[in-house]
Predict the structure.
Amino acid sequence: MADPGTDSVLPPIQSPCVSRCEIDPVIGLCEGCARSLDEIAQWGSATPAWRAAIMAALPGRRVRGNPPA
């Protein structure tokens, strides 16, 4: 069994959350982080690759107000 102070500690999950949680009713994205409700709900259990893809898409969403693909 791994020592709780070493190998079993997982790195923190990077999140785009800025604590301004309000969903825009027109485009369906959070006004703070630009994620959809589904993306927010799945974030903690999603794969690193999935989270990385969402993180890469966020700047374009913020600029254009585009909904997720």
